[in-house]
Write a structure and sequence with these properties.
The protein is an alpha+beta fold. Helices cover 23% and strands 34% of the residues. Strands 1, 2, 4, 5 and 6 form a five-stranded mixed β-sheet that branches. Helix 4 packs antiparallel against helix 5 and helix 5 packs across helix 8.
Length: 578
Amino acid sequence: MTLPEQLMRSQPATDLLAPVTCTASFDPPQIGPGEKSIYRITFNAPEISIRRPEPIPAPSPLNLHWRASGQNLQIIGNVAQTFSTFNYEAVPTLPGSFTLPEFNVEVYGKPVTVPAATLVVKSQRTEPAELARQLVVEPAANRVFVGEPLNVSVRLQATPAHGVEGVSQLQLNGDGFVTDKSAARQSIQTLKKNGVPLPAFVYETRITPITAGTIKLSAQGYTAGMQFSGPVVISGQVSLSSGPPQYLLLDSEPVTIEVLPLPTGNELPGFNGAIGHFSCDPPLLATNRLAVGDPVQLTVIFRGSPNLDRLHPPLPPRTPEWQIFPATPGGSVAAAGTNPPGALFHYTLIPLSYAPRATPAIPFSCFDPALGCYLDLTIPPVPVTLPAANAGSDVDTAQLLAEDVPGSSQSPGWSRLAATPGPRSALLGPLQFHPWFWFVQGLPVLGFIGLGMWERRRRRWEQHPEWRRRREARRALRRARRVLERAADDADFLRGAVSALQIACAPHYSATPGALVCGDILQLLPAAEREGEPGETVRRIFAAADSAAFAANKGTRSNILAEKVRLKKILANLEERL
C-alpha cells in the first residue's frame, strides 16, 4: 500500500448527511456597564452553504456588529463534521436583560432555526469582571514604509484557571499586505497583564505592506487545547489545558498601521527594493592573477536586518572589458562577534581583455527606514593582474570575446582564427528587420488561400457543367461576330451567320453547334419573334445557306448582306440568354 493510500485510509469519514443544527450564546453571558460580549452562532455545515444572518433582530439597547467568521473540521466519534462560526460584537447601552429571539437562517437553501440567547448587563458588579476571550494583535511598529517587513505577534492569554491553549487556523485579516508564512513561530511565554504575570500563547509572523495608506490589521483563529500546528517553544512553568479542546472562534480588535511611500527623486544607483539596515563586507576574489577568458568567482556578503531571505543581489553592470553573470545565492552566514548574520552571493566574472586592472564596481543601494534615506552599498572594485606573458596564446580568444560584448569599444574585424575571409553580406541586420521579410512570410498564406479558392472553383464547375458550356459558347460567339464584321461577300457572311446562330443555341440543347438546323434555332425564339421579322430573317439565312450548298446553280447570289443589322439584334438577344 502506497503512502497516499495509507494517509487516505487513516482519515475518518466525513459526515455530510447529518441534520443541520445551530447553537447561539453570549461570551460572557453577564457583563457590566461599558463592557462588551461576543455573540457566537455555530452551524454544523460548511460556511459557503450558509447565508450569513444580516441583520440580526436584536433589542434596540443592544448593538450587534459582525466581527469574524470561519470554519473548522472536528472529529465526533468516528466521523468528521464541518462547523462554521459567526462572531458578532454585542455592546449594550443600558443595563438589563436582553434576549435575542429565535430567527431563521438559510442553510443548503432550507431554513434552520437559531435558538434564543440572553445577555445580562448589570448596573453594578459585585464579583470580578469576566471579560470576553479574544486575541491581541501587537505589531512591532505602527508606522512603516511600503515594502518594509514588519514583525507581528498574536497573543492569547491563559484562561482564568491559568490554562494555556493553542490556536489553530490562525490568520491575519486586512488588505494591503502579504504574510510571510515561512517566518511563523509559536511559543508559550509568561507575560504581565496589569502587573500580574500570566502565561500566554504567542504566535509571531512577518508581514510586508505593498500599498501606501492605512492598514486595518486583525487576527482570528480557533482555540485548539493542547493541539499545536507545529513546534512550540515553552518558556517557564506553564499549565496546559487538559481534556478535549473546545473549538471556539476568537478574533481580535483591529489595529491601525500607517504605511508611507518610499521617497522619490533621490534614489541611488542599484536600488532594487531592498529595505532595511544593511552593510556590505569587503568582496573576496578567488584569485587576483587572471587570464583572459578564464572565469573567476567574486564572493560578496551582505549583513543586516533579519529579512535577508528577501534580499535580492544587485544586477551586474555591462562593460566591454568584463563578462559578468548574475549572482547566485550561496546560503547564510552566521553572526560573528558584533557582526550580524548575513547572506552570501557569488558572481562569476570573465576578463575579455588585458586592459582592466580591477574588477568593475557593482552599484547597489538600500533604503534605511530608521534613517529615512537611501544608503550606498556599492560593491567596490578588487585589484587584479593580467600578465602580458600569456597574451600570445590568448589574444585571439580575447578579441572574439570582446567583439561579442554589446557596447564594446573595439572595432569589429576578422579574427586571426579564420584563414580566409568569408562571403560578404550587404545587410548585416536580422532578416526580420527587412521590409521584404514579412511579405515572404505571407506568401505561403496567400498560396494556401489561392489553392483553396481554386479547389472551390473546380468543384463548382464540376457540379455545374452547363456553366462551362455557356461560357465557351459566349467566347465562341464573340469570335463568330468578329468574323461577321469582316465578311466581304454573301458566302462569307452566310457561313459566319449560320455558325454564330448555331453557337448561340447549342448550350440549350447540350449538342454540337454544327448539328443544329433552322428549326432548332426558331424553337429558342419567343413566339412573337418566331412568327415575326426575326424568325423570317433566320429562315432566309438558313435557306440561303442551303441554296449555296446544295443548289444546282451555285452562281446565283441573293442580297443577304441586307440582313446584317437584324442578325446582330437576334444574336444579341440569344447572347443574353446564355
